[in-house]
């Protein structure tokens, strides 16, 4: 396997370094970000290289790149940088946790970040540049298109279709046979019982604060 460069220097990039080195036995040799965002010379004891210099210093025929970015701009930033890295000729490997249960027989796309305790049932199809944070259920025959970000403890029931660039928040639930339109956002705890048109936003209300302060509670 080629040495790996990680695009990004955020906490997600640090996690990518941890998972690739500890669980996937990959050698991480550098981080990279756009030159204007280089603020430190090193990260996780590896050099931070301006992206504009990456091809010269860490050429594509000798290195892979993993784009470790969040859901910023409804996943458009991660999509843009993934495409930019691909355009330079780099391969973008996926990380799939050894502690995930992956039962689908179909190959998972490039630059995916699939963390521990995900259950991916048979006949699921996952595109490129998809993040599945820890503890999700992806039901049988479901499709997750490119550039989606699924946070933690999300339930995608059987035969659902998640279109490109969607964000699914913590504990959101989608019933079976639903289609979630492109760039939709499901907030924390959202419950989806019907199809979602593109760019839909679904937010649950926060739990209200009680007028009784905690100092007056009895039995705790």
From TrEMBL:
InterPro entries: AcTrfase_PglD-like, GMPPB_C, Trans_hexapeptide_repeat, Trimer_LpxA-like_sf
Key words, A-Z: Acyltransferase, Repeat, Transferase
Keyword Acyltransferase in record: yes
Superkingdom of origin: Bacteria
Domain Mannose-1-phosphate guanyltransferase C-terminal: 94-186
Coiled-coil blocks: none
GO molecular function: acyltransferase activity
Pfam families (alphabetical): GMPPB_C
Family: Belongs to the transferase hexapeptide repeat family.
Protein name: Sugar O-acyltransferase, sialic acid O-acetyltransferase NeuD family
Species of provenance: Jannaschia faecimaris
């Amino acid at each position: 396997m080629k040495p790996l460069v990680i695009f990004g220097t955020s906490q997600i990039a640090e996690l990518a370094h941890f998972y690739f080195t500890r669980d996937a036995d990959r050698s991480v040799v550098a981080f990279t970000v756009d030159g204007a965002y280089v603020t430190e010379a090193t990260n996780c004891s590896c050099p931070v290289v301006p992206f504009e210099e990456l091809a010269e210093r860490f050429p594509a025929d000798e290195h892979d790149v993993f784009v470790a970015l969040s859901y910023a701009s409804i996943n458009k930033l991660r999509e843009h940088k993934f495409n930019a890295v691909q355009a330079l000729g780099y391969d973008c490997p996926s990380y799939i946790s050894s502690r995930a249960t992956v039962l689908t027989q179909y190959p998972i796309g490039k630059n995916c970040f699939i963390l521990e305790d995900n259950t991916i049932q048979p006949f699921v199809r996952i595109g490129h540049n998809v993040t599945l944070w820890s503890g999700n259920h992806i039901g049988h025959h479901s499709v997750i298109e490119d550039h989606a970000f699924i946070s933690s403890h999300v339930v995608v029931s059987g035969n659902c279709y998640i279109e490109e660039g969607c964000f699914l928040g913590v504990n959101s639930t989608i019933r079976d046979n639903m289609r979630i339109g492109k760039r939709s956002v499901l907030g924390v705890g959202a419950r989806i019982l019907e199809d979602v048109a593109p760019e839909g936003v679904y937010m649950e209300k926060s739990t209200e604060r009680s007028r009784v302060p905690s100092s007056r509670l009895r039995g705790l």
